[in-house]
Each structure stands twice: as C-alpha cells, then as structure tokens.
Design goal:
Elements lengths: L1 E6 L5 E5 L5 E6 L4 E7 L10 E3 L5 E4 L20 H12 L8 E5 L1 H4 L12 E6 L5 E8 L4 E7 L3 E6 L4 E7 L21 E2 L5 E4 L4 E6 L4 E8 L16 E6 L5 E5 L4 E5 L4 E6 L18
Antiparallel strand pairs: 1-2, 2-3, 3-4, 5-6, 6-7, 7-8, 9-10, 10-11, 11-12, 13-14, 14-15, 15-16, 17-18, 18-19, 19-20
Length: 296
C-alpha cells in the first residue's frame, strides 16, 4: 500500500509504498498518470518521511514494514503489565540484527524523465543510517538551516541530519513512556507527525500526550503545557495517550494538528495554548491532512 505522499513545488505528487520492497513513484497532473521511479535500496517501508529541500531535492526516510502484522508470543507471562512488557519484547525482536533505516536524497530534475523497469533501483543518493536498529518514522525539515529532523521507531530516538555538513546527530529519546493507545494495538504509540516552526523549533507529541519542543539553540527537548486532545481514560491500570498524526505550520506561527483519537486542534506555541476543533468523524485516527491554497 501507499504509506507516504508529498506535494512537491514542481506541482507533482511523490510517494512511496510499504511491503516486501518499497517503491518510489510520482503522479504527474499534466498527464494524469502515475510513473514508477524505482526501488528504494534495502527498504521495506516509508512512513510519513518525505520532505523537500532547497533546489527541489526530495529526502526520503526508510525502514522496515511497520504495517505488517506482528508475530506475537503464544505464551504470555503473568504479573503487573506482563502483557505490555511481552508486547514490547515482541516488537523489539523484529529489529534484531537490523542495520537501521536509511535516509535518501532524490533529484526530480535528474530522475523523473527516466524510464524504470520493474526491478530497477531508484536514482537516489544514500545518505546513511539515521538510527541504528530503527526505522525512520516521521520527518520534517528546516529549510533555512538546511537541517532534517526525525523520530525513529520503535525506540523514539530523535535525530537530525545536517544537509550541508552531511552528518547525523542523535539527541536521545523523544519520549520515554511505552504505551499502546491504538487504534493499532500492536504498535507503540509514537508520533507520526513532526513540524519545524519559523523560529527553527521542532514540535511533536510526547509522554502523556503533551506537546514536546526541541530548541536547536539549547539542544534540548522539553515538555510544554499543551496536551494533544483525545479520549483519556483515568483508571488505575490505564497507560496510554494519543499521539499526533499530522502537524502543519501556519503563517501566523500557530500549528494545526490531528490526533490518533481523531481530533483536530490548533496550537499556539508562543502562548502555550491549544484550541480544539473537535472530531470530524466518529472513527479514531485522522488518516491524512494537508493545507489548501486558500489557507484552510
């Protein structure tokens, strides 16, 4: 299936699939056709990890097939949080011996005009592994400082890539709590959206559903007082919270987002205030969201 789509400044839509092998492709509105752009090397999936840099260069973060059904242990231990702990062990076992997700660079001006056979590799430049033993799960870009930021799965490691310096840097875990809020009960609750604001700060959700912020000047991650809207259940043994699905930086410095519980909200980082617009549908998760040319 298609698990990543991105609208490019050249008017085309670029995307990638997830499965046994990830395929890069583009949709050209001028011809109303989809064109294959080749296979991404050593990559099963691409999830929320396509961004555009200067000169129209596309950066793609790869990883394993995160939508594949997990092989769960048949024998479950007993005890407090035993099932959750075993689920975490089952998730981690999938990454035993895995090198880690690669970051790729693709130049549409060089690769779009070529014809790709079924088994042809995409004309990408391999920039290296972002986080060893992890997939790249979500990405954003600071186009001014030419820096890519991302969060990995399943360990939620926060990293950056200096495009000009050609270097990765890891800052530790974006979040510490391990929870399974769903709707996919075998997935760890890690944000699927991350955004860089005009001032260069990076925002996404973290522990207990709070909006977290990374300040590149201080090189630190901190929790804000803003909380992602969701269906929080205050019970003794409940240990879960919603995560963000998409985040969009708006012209007025606010951030519009959606949550895994299906809520739409607007965050105002300067005041640390958050406005909830509600749920457009009863179902959980907002599968996709973008900003229109009219600003909405």
């Amino acid at each position: 299936p298609i698990t990543a789509l991105f609208g490019h400044s050249n008017g085309k839509v670029y995307g990638a699939t997830t499965g046994k092998q990830s395929h890069l492709f583009t949709y050209d509105f001028m011809t109303n056709k989809v064109y294959p752009l080749g296979l991404l090397p050593d990559t099963e999936g691409v999830h929320h990890t396509i961004v555009e840099g200067k000169g129209g260069i596309i950066f793609v973060g790869g990883g394993l097939n995160e939508i594949e059904l997990l092989s769960l242990s048949a024998d479950m231990p007993h005890g407090r949080r035993a099932i959750e702990n075993q689920l975490w062990a089952d998730i981690k076992s999938k990454y035993n011996g895995y090198e880690g997700g690669h970051l790729f660079a693709y130049d549409p001006s060089e690769g779009d005009s070529d014809v790709y056979m079924e088994d042809a590799e995409a004309k990408v430049k391999d920039l290296g592994v972002a986080v060893p033993g992890n997939s790249i799960y979500c990405m954003t870009i600071d186009t001014v400082k030419e820096t890519i930021y991302g969060i990995s799965y399943p360990d939620a490691e926060f990293f950056s890539y200096d495009i000009n310096g050609k270097k990765f840097k890891r800052y530790g875990k974006w979040m510490e709590m391990i929870a399974y809020p769903g709707p996919e009960r075998s997935w760890r609750g890690i944000p699927r959206g991350i955004v860089c604001s005009e001032d260069g700060k990076v925002y996404s959700s973290g522990d207990n559903g709070l909006i977290f912020c990374f300040d590149p000047e201080l090189q630190k991650i901190r929790a804000t007082s803003m909380r992602v809207p969701g269906e929080y259940w205050e019970t003794q043994n409940y240990n879960a919270f919603p995560v963000v699905e998409q985040l969009i930086a708006m012209p007025d410095s606010s951030i519009v987002g959606s949550s895994s519980d299906g809520f739409i909200f607007r965050a105002f980082p300067a005041e640390e205030k958050l406005k909830v617009y509600g749920k457009p549908r009863v179902e959980r998760r907002v599968r996709a969201m973008t900003q229109g040319n009219d600003g909405r």
